[in-house]
Write a structure and sequence with these properties.
108 residues; alpha+beta; PA1123-like; three-stranded antiparallel sheet
Length: 108
């Protein structure tokens, strides 16, 4: 199977869970319910994992950040987060620039 940028972006959009910055430790943590962070993570700092891996680089453009995906990989819960093969390939291909894309909300 050939891994394309489109498949990598789809894999990023299918990530599960939520990420929050623990104010005490300064480290990002992953949970599977917004309610399970407790007092150490501010409510307005909880974001879906699928959005966490994207960073704004212009008004509409975003970059799929390997550094942020690595933070998820370091949690060692790949199956629960739903890290799939396209994201693994993306992480292993350091010779290829990070993916930049224009993202927009699609009403379903």
């Amino acid at each position: 199977m050939r891994i394309t940028s489109q498949l990598i972006c789809q894999a990023a959009d299918q990530l599960k869970g939520f990420v929050g910055l623990n104010r005490k430790t300064g480290q990002y943590i992953v949970r599977f319910s917004e309610d399970s962070f407790g007092m150490d993570v501010a409510d307005d700092g909880i974001i879906p994992t699928s959005e966490f891996v994207w960073a704004a680089d212009s008004e509409q453009g975003m970059t799929l950040k390997r550094e942020l995906i690595q933070l998820l990989l370091d949690q060692n819960i790949d199956d629960r987060i739903n890290i799939t093969e396209p994201l693994r390939v993306y992480m292993n291909r350091q010779d290829v620039p990070e993916i930049a894309a224009v993202r927009s909300l699609v009403q379903g």
